[in-house]
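thread: overnight batch results

M.L. [08:02]
morning all. the overnight job finished for the chain we discussed friday. pasting input first so we're all looking at the same thing
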Amino acid sequence: MEYVAIVVVLFVAFYLFIHQRYLKQDGLKDSAYKKKGSLLNSKESAFYNALIAAVGQQAVVMSKVTMTKVIAPKAKDKKQWFIANNRIAKSHFDFVVCDPRSLEVRVVIELDDGSPLSKGKVERQKLLMHVCQSAGIPLIGATIKHSYQVGKLRRLLAAHIDLIEADKEVRFCKRCGSPMNIKTATHGDYKGRRFFTCSRQPHCTYTENYNVVFEDE
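M.L. [08:03]
and the structure it wrote out:
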C-alpha cells in the first residue's frame, strides 16, 4: 500500500513539473506582441520638451502617470475606499513635475490640446480639480502654445517650486505705469509666495500675482 502511495505522489509531482516547465511556456509562445510607437503624440512631445527646458536640473518631468501612483483614497471603510479608488483607477495625469531627489510629485499639469469640449473632457476636468484640491497638489492648466513660451511656463512652475528661477521680467504697474518689484510674502495665507508690487509704494499700492501669465497681443 505504501508503495502505491509513493508511486502516486511521484506521478503527481512529475505531472506538475511537466505542466510548469512546458505547457506554460507553450502558452507564452502563442502570444506575440508589437511595439506601439511613441508614448506621446507630436503636440504632447513638443510640450514635454518645453517642460524639460523650463525645469532644467531642478525637477524631473514624467508623463502619463496613473493617478493611483500619486494619490490614494482617504476612506473610512472598505466600501468607500473601493468607490473612491475606482474613480481614479483608469485615469492619469498628463504630466507631473517631481522633486529631483525624492521624486515626490510637486505639481500636476493638464495639457489642453485644443480638442472640442465634450462630456468626457468636462468630467475629466472635474475629477482632476477635485483630486488635486483634496490631495493638496497644485494643478496647472496649460495649452499647446506654452510649448513655444518656455519663459511663461517657467514662471508658472516657479510659483510652486522655489528651486526654479523664473526669467527676469520687467512688469509695469497698471495703475500708475511705474516699474514693479518682486517681493515675497512674509506672513499670512500666502507666506513664501512671490508677487509684484509697485515701486512707488506707499504712494501706489497696486500688487499683482506672480504667476499671472499674459498672452501675447
